[in-house]
Amino acid sequence: MMSYFWGSNFGYGTMFFGWIFMILFWALVIAGIVLLVKSLTGGNNSVSAGRALDVLKERYAKGEIDKKEFEEKKKDLV
Predict the structure, then answer these.
(1) Which residue from 15, 36, 39, 46 puts its CA 20 to 30 A from 62's CA?
(2) For the chain, what are the domain ranges?
C-alpha cells in the first residue's frame, strides 16, 4: 500500500503543483520587469510638466490669460 501512495500517482500531483509554481514565478519576474521599466521611464513626467509650463508662458505672452491665472496654473504645475 505504501508503494502505491509513493508511486506514480503521487508524482502527477507534484507535477501539477510544479506547473503552478513555475507560472507564478514567471508572472512575478515579468511584473518585476514591468515595474522596473515604469520606474526608470517615470522621469518623462517632468519633461511633460516642463512643456506644459512653456505652453502656459506662451499663452501669458499672447495675452490669452492674465497674471493671476498664470500664477495659479504655474503653482499647480510646479
Answers:
(1) 46
(2) 1-41, 43-78
